[in-house]
Fold:
Amino acid sequence: MTGSQPNFDFWPIKTGTRIERLALIMSFHLQFWQLIRKEQLKPVINKSMQPLAMNQFHRIFNTCRIPGQVRDSLLTCFKTESEGSKAPTNLIVLYRGYLFSFDLVENDEILTAHEIEGQLKFIEDWCQQQSTAGPGVGALTTTDRTKWAQNREYLIQLSADNKTILDTIESSLLAVALDDNEPITQEEILREALLGDCCENRWADKSYTSIAYMNGNFAGNLDHTPFDGMAIATEAQYILMSINECKGVYSGSKSKRVLSEPILLDFKLDDQLAKEIQIAKFSHKKMCETIEITYKVFTEYGRSVSAKHQIHPEAYIQLAIQLAYYRTHGKAAPTYCTATTRKFYRGRTETCRPCVLENVEFAKAMTDGSKNETELYAMLQKAGKKFQQTMANACNGYGCDRHLLGLYLTALENGVEVPELYKDPSYVKSGGNGNFVLSTSCVGYWNVCGSMPPMVSDGYSFFYGIENHQYSFTISSYNSCTETSAQLLQNNLYLSLLDMKKILDSNQQ
Structure:
């Protein structure tokens, strides 16, 4: 999963600015880390004033997936102050195939942005002075999980130093990647973050990696395993508001303590691992070439228009998505939409299934011209209310997908024959067993965008942001599928939103 940072007027695109800006960003990460450490982060509540589970914030820092031959495990070292001594506070920096580590805390005080800048600048200068790129061990983390588990085990067997380095990386506070590419538009940034030819500068298992481009633009790569998008969105909002408050200029102390130099993490490799790294880089590049990403901001109107008609903003967007897909493919599609269950203890998500009969009937009527505007308006209202009810059911624990997943895993773990339901073709066609053609998620009511690959080969991944005056959409599909086109779906979505506004305008309230 990836996301890009919106551009600020006071941070114009400019080559050579990334280190200073990144240092400021990391200082705000540390402030957020301190809030969680001290348990001072304001509890998150929903619109009904119900508190939401906060345990996912434990896994933003000091968290890493560990590959396994059969299944992965999740390493989480983070502790609050009341839970005991703090976990490692080192930052991992990846640049030009090299890996460095330095501590973000000195004598129980976090480094200032000025001090972080000095450490990052040391790493940047050192890497740029080398005649060749580093070995790029991070590329191994982008391979399939079983292959990476095998290579990781081989790394450990090859040298005890390698195990120490792996522990340093996997338990670290955060990771940052310095990329020499200079994407400008939000679409280019997303494409570089998710599909860029720089897998040697990634440690894909880390829960969060901040990506700093040469021209001062930023993105982030995230592992979805430890937390949901809304957890990291809370931190992102804190950081963006902090940057905006100081207008991107650090005004704190310019003095520097005497700090230890960043440590080069130098893996011991042999010819076999060198070959595996090259294979990983080639495979990653070929895989990324199969994915198409489009990003568009719809500026004709935003949620304020549908709000006048008492239509929930996410319901309205889901109607537009279904209509756009129907216009593109002439049929409906099983759809996943994220519903939060964080009102329950340690809740995460449930599947909201928005491809309901009312939604499909509206899409058909909008396409075949069989209904007049008054009838279409009534259908739009009916479909919108049905989505709200479906979403409410999912959020309140009445969804079916997580329950069915639990039963399926219980059968597997206990050696019980898997029920016929899970083998039925209609279950798969409905999206079961991870076969949703449309995988959709709201990134929030702001202008931050994100993306991830589709769930199935003939499907789409769909991220959307909702604002009063505009919407933003990121759609991805696989180029290898001749039936799908992210760009065509994006175009039809644009037209669908225009047509839906005409229906609303015909029934002014």
